[in-house]
Write a structure and sequence with these properties.
The protein contains 26 helices and twelve strands. By secondary structure, it is of the alpha+beta class. Helix 14 runs antiparallel to helix 16, helix 21 packs across helix 23 and helix 21 crosses helix 25. It is globular and about 90 Å long.
Length: 503
């Protein structure tokens, strides 16, 4: 089979081949994801190219990198794996990963790969090199990966695939999620043999594959399968502790199953796309990058799995009534989420996001219980910002996964309330105040010194201005003086005012 290859990538590939000098005895093959994506028609541009060679490629690749002023790093000097990062004149970056055969020839090398869809190769010597001159690739497919790819079947190259690298279990879910493929019975059997070995995989490798699953819009199906097969238990031992932990009358499921249902509900709510004018703005936020190519959407989905982990250490059963309570579980859970973020090597921004999410996931429900007001919404969004919209949707998914003592009318009312909270951000909360009524220098002229209370006064004035309680600078000054008066008899950062505050 012959397929077309993009012209620019073809030129770049030919340039590196001029240093590798491929031949029948010094073979170079293109393998992996770039071929898979070309067959699928997924990408018009390919930025990552994987090459395998029958010889040690390190010195030749180093020479190429030096002469083209490309980045060069040896990824594994025992297995002779290098990475070259090539920058074009248009400031596009291409990554070449070049490695020596894992076996004695290309056939056995392909058998060492994870799945048949990734074991399709193209020779870049002899006839294959000639075809590349015309921007075409000759495909070599001994494991029939092309057929599997067209049928969206995910099959291992050998029964030893997961033993040699247990992370491939996560990759199986990633590809099944991407191609909407089924996890076969054969695959499940192989999982059971090797899934316990996932504990030996580094946090960042687990993170990368997990987040690729979270990125798809049908990930709930595969997260549920990972839960059913207890693969999630290995990745998140904190979640395993939630199994068979009964809850109070508000819940019909134990903590573990409630968590998985929350995840499923969250994805369903996203895919429903309600006809609100602000929904597209919300989706734009979700798909923004929070760190290193990972999005807020992926982080929110992770938060669905972490949101109730604090219930285990906080669970108390009243000896007299038998009532189960989880007082403070959101605060305890926030601490646990920080530990998990560190284990997964998440960035500081992602860690803080998870802590904020878990800490505040109950607040939207409390706002609805107490009654929506400008003041409550202002305080919520002052602390959470736009992240509060995602937290609110998680709160709805959480409530829908707790169908204990709720009737249909209450669910409808709660759902409408959550959407009202979310819409409020895009209608009002994201708009800056037209004019600050009080500034820091105003407080200083009143005798205030910068400090904790200094900030408290400015925030209180801002809140009162937003909610319409004050509209003029005179009213803002009066409110500030009242704060000063209330704290003048305490040891604070505020000096007593020089003029009387009250008549």
């Amino acid at each position: 089979m012959i397929i077309n290859f993009p012209q620019l990538e073809s030129v770049l590939l030919r340039e590196i081949l001029s240093f590798l000098h491929p031949s029948e005895t010094n073979q170079v093959w293109l393998v992996g994801g770039s071929i898979r994506d070309l067959i699928k028609g997924k990408n018009t541009k390919i930025y990552d190219l994987d090459l395998v060679t029958s010889f040690n490629p390190i010195e030749k690749c180093k020479k190429f990198a030096n002469e083209t002023k490309s980045g060069f790093v040896i990824l594994d000097d025992e297995r002779n794996i290098v990475r070259i990062v090539y920058e074009t004149k248009n400031n596009d970056f291409y990554t070449f990963d070049v490695s020596q055969f894992k076996a004695d020839n290309i056939d056995n090398d392909l058998l060492c790969r994870d799945f048949t869809i990734n074991a399709i190769a193209s020779p870049l010597f002899d006839e294959g090199r000639k075809l590349l001159e015309n921007n075409k690739l000759l495909l070599y497919d001994p494991l029939d990966g092309i057929t599997d790819l067209k049928k969206n079947h995910i099959k291992v190259c050998s029964s030893e695939s997961f033993k040699s690298d247990p992370l491939r279990i996560m990759r199986a879910f990633r590809f099944c999620s991407a191609y909407k493929a089924e996890i076969t019975a054969e695959m499940k059997t192989l999982f059971k043999i090797s899934q316990s070995l996932l504990v030996n995989i580094s946090g960042e490798r687990i993170r990368d594959e997990l987040f690729k699953v979270l990125a798809t819009n049908n990930s709930a199906k595969y997260i549920k399968e990972m839960a059913d097969m207890k693969i999630l238990d290995v990745i998140f031992p904190e979640l395993e502790k939630c199994r068979n932990i009964s809850q109070n009358a508000w819940h019909h499921l134990d903590v573990f199953d409630h968590t998985i249902l929350t995840y499923e509900n969250f994805e369903k709510l996203l895919n429903m796309a309600p006809p609100h004018f602000w929904w597209n703005k919300f989706l734009k936020y979700l798909h923004e990058e929070i760190s290193q190519g990972r999005t807020y959407l992926q982080s929110l989905k992770l938060g669905c799995l972490l949101h109730d982990l604090g219930k285990i250490p906080c669970r108390i059963v009243d000896k007299e009534t038998g009532k189960i309570i989880f007082h403070g579980h959101e605060m305890q859970g926030s601490k646990i989420s920080k530990e998990i973020a560190a284990r997964l090597r998440l960035s500081s921004a992602e860690s803080l996001f998870q802590q904020k999410l878990v800490k505040n996931h109950m607040r939207p429900g409390v706002i609805l219980q107490q009654g929506i007001s400008n003041k409550r919404l202002f305080r919520y969004y002052s602390e959470c910002g736009i992240d509060g919209t995602g937290i609110a949707l998680l709160s709805l998914a959480d409530r829908l996964a707790a169908l204990g003592n709720f009737n249909e009318d209450e669910i409808i009312e709660f759902t409408a309330g959550i959407y009202q909270i979310m819409s409020e951000y895009f209608i009002q909360q994201s708009k800056p105040l037209t004019k600050e009524l009080l500034r820091g220098d105003d407080l200083i002229s009143m005798g205030a010194k910068p400090g904790p209370l200094f900030k408290t006064i400015l925030e209180a004035v801002k809140e009162a201005q937003y909610t319409g309680e004050i509209k003029t600078k005179e009213e803002a000054v009066q409110l500030a003086r009242e704060f000063i008066f209330q704290n003048s008899k305490k040891k604070t950062d505020i000096e007593p005012p020089s003029t009387p505050v009250h008549d």
